[in-house]
Amino acid sequence: MTVIIGIDPGSRHTGYGIIRVEGNQSFHLASGCIHLLETQLTERLQKIFSGLQEVIQHYQPDEAAIEQVFMHENPGSALKLGQARGAAIVALTIPVAEYSARQVKQSVVGYGAAKKEQVQHMVGRLLNLPDKLQADAADALAIALCHAHTRFSLSKIGIIKQDAKSRRKKSSWRDYQPDST
Fold first, then answer.
1. What is the largest CA-CA distance in the chain?
2. pTM to 2 decimals?
3. Is the pLDDT reported for residue 116 higher than 90?
4. Fewest beta carbons less than 10 Å away: which of 132, 165, 166, 168?
5. How confident is the model over 120-147, as pLDDT tens digits?
6. Are 2 and 63 in contact (CB under 8 A)?
7. Which residues are catalytic?
8. What is d(CA 99, CA 118) in angstroms, rounded to the nearest whole number?
């Protein structure tokens, strides 16, 4: 059993999603959004940090995944997003895997250019959730699911082992090396 936290960073809304993975099955534990209503960027970054630390302390995830920064048309927005992402990464006390939005959509929906509504729908279906998810929480759960799918695939081809004794935490799929057993 592995607990994974997915983070969808944002300077106004940061989503988080926590799943439990057993083999190729994923189960929803929690999800939500940290709403950042403060006007000062430093206050928002502190709230991201402290909010995620509370979630992490409560659920004790084994692994984390976060969405990579994509380039906005507005460089100022990209910088703020990068700072929010940095605050989230610092709050995590475990290694973090990074995935592009296209990778997440491909993993969850099967189409790298899927729309937000399609991602929300598929996350709900994959986790058997009866209610529609808030967009940022759905995106965070999609990131966690992408990580779960990636690590399951890597275990199937022998790149990593799934059992708790030999589980190694890495920051990216590129960091995984075959186990020498």
1. 54
2. 0.83
3. no
4. 165
5. 999 999 999 988 889 999 999 999 999 9
6. yes
7. 8, 67, 136
8. 18
